Amino acid sequence: MRLGFHGAVGGVTGSCYLLECGARRVLLECGLVQGGDDARQANRAPFPVPAGSLDAVVLSHAHIDHSGRIPMLVAAGYDGPIYTHRATVDLCDIMLRDAAYLQEKDSETENRKRARRGLRRLKPLYTMRDAERALRQFRPLAYDARTEILPGIELRLRDAGHILGSAIVELWLREQDRSRKVVFSGDLGLRGTPILRDPAVVEEADAVLLESTYGDRLHRSRDDSIAELGEVFAAAHAEGGNILIPAFAVGRTQELLYQFARHYDDWGLDHWRICLDSPMAIRATEVYGKHEELYDRETLQLQREAGLRLAAKLEMIRTPQQSRALNRARSGLVIIAASGMCEGGRVRHHLKNLLWRPRTHVIIVGFQARGTTGRKLVDGAAYVSLWGEPVRVKATVHTLGGFSAHADQQGLVDWYRAIRGSPPVWLVHGEDEARAALGRQLRRAAGARVTLPGPGDMIELERLRRA
Ligand SMILES: [Zn+2]
Ligand SMILES: [Zn+2]
């Protein structure tokens, strides 16, 4: 019985862990490495064991850094089940197709460059056909039901409160007369996140894998950011300008819409045209709409009146023509568009059209990685480059730090402390500084035995003291 660490150890992306129990092999997460040229190489690396030798795959949630290499695994010969929450199946249907489309497009561009240098063509990481094949292998599960996925291996998903369908993964392993329980936090949400319920409390574990994205940070309050949003609406209305919000298609967009519904009157939204300009965000919003059974109580209440009012007001911008037509409006327009870091998608067209206009307000609501256009805006750049052309930034840029899909240090420590008997914990899914800081806090505040695993490290589960 053992657990190996093969991804998101020393970084945030590319989650991948391998469980072995008797002769059975289960891959937990199969995520894409994101960011830069190293990522391209890392994603082409072979899987820790031959794809065909796996018996099951378990997936915590739809984000591409957890799910994005699944089509590649299937192309490499994995034809078994992929267990995940049913809302994740719906979101993966959008996200894996989108990822395949981007892979195909990316490899075309790359191959044009290679051809000019006389290099041989590269195949895309995977194709739309691979993604579609993978989607057929998904097996939808509900939260809280314990399922035997293989002889001697039981699985239960618990609500992680991070995005729709996101799960904490509990696995019970049995080999002869020995049994161990492994708990993987997945990505843990922040308590009080709109729409979603708070992360479930796990009662016991022999080994815990804990994410540490914000292991070294305490979040600013969401209420401050909500108040700031209201002020931006007031200022932009007084000036007669437009508002542009770059947002991630899954999660952040739906939270924004929730806040719009909740503060509809306070923010005077009747005066505005509100446009959701991202086909992927529109589809993700439809999936959220389909899964009311997963909402928290406040959202269900809100939905009845305010939600319907916003729904009637919200314009879904589906075609490129509709999107271009928005360029003509000089005032009174709120545009939510992807991508969240302004690196692709329709938001770039709107930036080109709006950034140089002084009455524009750009609202940044999500994490901006170093080197991205979004980060440059946050850092106060006077110009940003769009399609090789410098565009003067005359717009007012607001950075709101109170929206997060991840628990902060306090949230992570509190979640761990609720597990009985301080089981040993392995920190994953975080930069090294974040992991180190969280490790210190877990030892100090919770008396935890903490390990920061590296790539290829292994836990012999039988050697662990029972909880
Ligand atoms: Zn995530
Ligand atoms: Zn993640």
Keywords:
seven-stranded mixed sheet; Metallo-beta-lactamase, Chain A; alpha/beta; Rossmann fold; binds zinc ion; 22% strand; 467 residues; 2 domains; single chain; globular
How would you describe this protein?
The chain is an alpha/beta fold and 467 residues long. It folds into 2 domains: 2-217 and 405-463, 4-Layer Sandwich (Metallo-beta-lactamase, Chain A), CATH 3.60.15; 222-399, 3-Layer(aba) Sandwich (Rossmann fold), CATH 3.40.50. It has 14 helices and 22 strands. It has helices spanning 36-44, 64-67, 70-75, 86-116, 128-136, 222-239, 252-262, 279-290, 297-313, 320-325, 347-354, 373-378, 409-417, 432-446; strands spanning 2-7, 16-21, 24-28, 56-58, 82-85, 138-141, 147-150, 153-159, 167-175, 178-184, 207-211, 243-246, 273-276, 314-316, 333-337, 361-364, 383-386, 389-392, 396-399, 425-428, 450-451, 458-460. The strands form 4 sheets. It has a 7-stranded mixed sheet. It has a 7-stranded mixed sheet with strand order 7-8-9-10-11-20-21, with helices on one face. Strands 14-13-15-12-16-19 form a 6-stranded parallel sheet, with helices on both faces. Strand 3, helix 1 (36-44) and strand 4 form a beta-alpha-beta unit. Helix 7 (252-262) packs across helix 9 (297-313). The mean pLDDT is 95. The structure holds zinc ion (ZN) (2 copies).
